[in-house]
Amino acid sequence: MSAKGDMYYAWTKSCDIKGECGGAVISLLKYALENKIVDVVLTVKKGVDVYDPQPVFITNPADLDSCAGSLHCGTLLLPKLIKKYLNGAKDIKVAVTCKGCDAKALLELGKRQQINLDNVISIGLNCGGSVSPMPARRMIREKYGVNPDDVVKEEIDKGKFIIFTKDGQEKGISIDELEEEGYGRRKNCQRCETKVPRQCDLACGNWGVIGEKAGKATFVEICSEKGAMLFDAAQKAGAIDSCAPEAKGLEIRGKIENVMIKMGKKAQEKQFAELGTGTERLNKIMQQSSKCIKCYGCIENCPICYCVECSTKKPHLVRPGIIPPDFMFQMIRFAHIADSCINCGQCSELCPMDIPNSLYMHAQQVELEKMFGHKPGYDMTMPVLSYAEETEERARLNATGSDMIFENVFKE
Question: Domain 4Fe-4S ferredoxin-type, which positions (predicted)?
Fold first, then answer.
């Protein structure tokens, strides 16, 4: 029997599944769906091209075959779709594939009681970062000298972003080189330290698969009892097969992860330093935020935002009909989000005015983490502000008009 911390090379036993790394992930999802362990699978498939990732809810196991492969030009965040379209998995069992940011979003929504994690099986996918679709097309045209429409596949391997074209060409350029010239991964991906999503039930990828299994198997790390049960059941049923990983493969996997974590920390230092400190930082944020058109895209897509009664829509806090909105609009978001920001980048990715919201949030989250020790998205520990009773506090604010929670303490 498998247990948390166990690691395997795994591959599909089905000749119909053509996965890039042995097809183990698709086989696990298909097994869970076929055997009614879950009612639906939430994952991603390619749309019209490699720049068009589409989230899909799948109930027919046969449809999972179209979801094999990776899409690094996709910037979707899946867990909030469980809350929005599946009633937070309160009465339905869901399997979902998760990058690092998805895994953290899932936990943050779970601890806020927006998703019932008891009804969710999460399959983590190792992630070195993603590239926004339009910048990816520009990068391929300008740096690779290739028509973006001719690209049929892409991958990140050995520190390079590699493209494959219709006529069989293969071309790779160092990610470091790309990012030094302003191309490459999203800024939040550059800052990310969550490369192997161990918050999930299983963590899967190709890092560390060497020897005769290279390209033919998935590296699977068991991260929970739920993950162990699914893995063992699928193997017993003949859906997958597995073997122990090679010792050298374990070493390589660890080195890759550590290098990428160091890269993330280095990117944080660089990007946060460019913001400045104190008044300088505040002025930069206010200047950039003055482009805001109050479309609410950042709020609607943030996995931390869940309030039914949003303070940014209170006329006594943010004057209605004013564009750009009062800076209080941004201040409210900072107060509500910054202690729990998971650096998913959705608030920047979906901002029509290209305001780097996630940079501001992440910079504040890191400072708050130093102060309070809370690291969001890694376990079910609640953030500091969660200990305030929101319903009672809103009622008190409405009744008194005062934000001085402890005002009576100082009265003699």
Answer: 283-313, 332-362
CB 374 within 8 A of CB 383: yes
pLDDT tens-digit profile of 2-46?
999 999 999 999 877 777 788 999 999 999 999 999 999 999 999
The reported pTM is 0.91
pLDDT the model gives residue 179: 95
Among 236, 263, 290, the domain boundary falls at 263
- My answer on whether 289 and 246 are in the same domain is no
- Burial class of residue 55 (count of CB atoms within 10 Å of its CB; 0-12, 13-18, 19+): middle
Rounded-to-integer distance, Cα 360 and Cα 275, Å: 8
Total domains in the fold of the chain: 2
In the predicted model, is pLDDT for residue 142 greater than 90? yes
Cβ-based neighbour number of residue 317 at 10 Å: 14
> Last residue of some domain: 263, 285, 308?
263
Q: Please state, rounded to an integer, the average pLDDT across all residues of the chain.
A: 91
What range does the domain containing 75 cover? 7-130+185-263
Domain assignment present for residue 404? The answer is yes
Tell me which DSSP letter residue 143 carries: T
Q: Cα separation of 26 and 98, whole Å?
A: 13
Q: Which two tokens stand for residue 150?
A: 């001719």
User: Are 220 and 102 in the same domain?
Assistant: yes
Is 119 buried (19+), middle (13-18) or exposed (0-12) by CB count in 10 A? middle
Asked whether residue 51 falls in the same domain as residue 196, the answer is yes
pLDDT digits (tens, 9 = 90+) for 223-262: 999 999 999 999 999 999 999 999 999 999 999 999 999 9
